[in-house]
Amino acid sequence: MTGVTAHPGQQVFQEHRRLLFSVAYRVLGTAADAEDTVQDAWIKWSAADRTQVADPRAYLTRIVSNLALERLRSARHKRETYVGPWLPEPILTGGDASEPVTDAESVSMAMLVVLETLSPLERAVFVLKEVFDFSHAEIAEAVERSEAAVRQAAHRAREHVRARRPRFATGRARQREATERFLSAATGGDVNALMELLSPDVTLWTDGGGKVRQALRPVVGAATVAAWFAAIGTVTYQGVEPAEMHAELLDINGAPGMVFRGQGRVIATVAFDFDADGRITAIHNVANPDKLQAVARGTAYDIGTR
Questions:
Q1: Which of 51, 206, 219, 236 has the smallest C-beta neighbourhood within 10 Å, fewest atoms?
Q2: 3-state SS assignment for residue 274
Q3: Of 21-30, 45-54, 224-233, highest mean pLDDT
Q4: In Å, how far are 104, 131, 204, 279, 294 from 174, measured between CA atoms?
Q5: How many of the other CB atoms lie within 10 Å of CB of 138?
Q6: Do residues 83 and 282 make contact, with C-beta atoms less than 8 angstroms apart?
Q7: Which pLDDT tens digit goes with each residue over 89-103?
Q8: Is the pTM higher than 0.90?
Q9: What is the pLDDT of residues 23-41, one digit of tens each?
Q10: Using H for helix, E for strand and C for coil, what is the string for 35-92?
Q11: How far is CA 124 from the centre of its chain?
C-alpha cells in the first residue's frame, strides 16, 4: 500500500530531478556531491506533507539548495587543504547546439572555478538568481536568510564574478575547431601549432589531488604550456605508454573538451576557456581518479536551467 501512495510523489520528483541536479552541481562543483544531495532531497520530499505544497518545483529547489549549501560549508575545509589546485569534477554534457549559451557558460569549468572563490552563501544566491532566475524572496526562503541579506549577497557575488569572468561569446563551432586543432597538435607533438592556438599568458591548471603526479602550481605562458602538451605523445603517463593512450573529443561542462583513456580507464579530462579572438586563455586538466568517475560512467548530463 505504501508503494501506491508514494508513487505520485515519486513521479513529481522525477519530473524535477534534472533541474535539482543542475542546481546542486552548480552550487557544489562535484557530480558525486550533487547526486548525493538530490538523493537527500528525495528523502526529505518523500517524508513531507505534500498536500501543503502548492508549487513542487519551487519547494524542491528550496530543499536541494538548502542541502547543497550545508554540504558546501562542510566541504570547504577539505578543499582548502587539498593537494595542488582544486578543480570541479568534470561531467559529460549533451552538446546540444540549441542549448542556450548561458546554460553552458554557467556550468563551464572556468565559471565553476570562479564560483569556488565565493562564500558558500554568495555562491548559492548567485546560482539561484543569475542562472535559475529565482526572485530574492524565493531565494531568501531557500537559504534561510532575510531578503535584504540575499540582495547584498547577490550584489557582492555578481560584482565578484564580473571582475573575474569577462564574457566572451566564442561560438560553438569555433570552440570545436580550436579543440580539434589542439588535439591533433598535442597528439602529433607539434609545438608551433599549439603556440598558435594559445594566448601568450595562457594558464594551465592541473588537478591530481595528490593521487597522481601533476603540477602543484598553475603552469603559465604559451611556450611552457605548449611544451607540456607536446610531450603527451612521447612520455609514459600514469603507467600508460603513449601508444596505449587514446584521446577523444567530447562535450565537457557545456563545451568541446578532451578525454584521455588508457588501459581501460579514464586518465584525464581537458577543458578550455577562450578569449574574444578564440585563443585559449585557460586549460583545466583533471587527473584525480576520484573526480573522473562521472566521465568514466559515460552519463551525459542535461544541464538546462528550465
A1: 51
A2: strand
A3: 21-30
A4: 15, 24, 20, 10, 26
A5: 20
A6: no
A7: 999 998 665 566 678
A8: yes
A9: 999 999 999 999 999 999 9
A10: HHHHHHHHHHHHHCCHHHCCCHHHHHHHHHHHHHHHHHHHHHHHHHCCCCCCCCCCCE
A11: 15
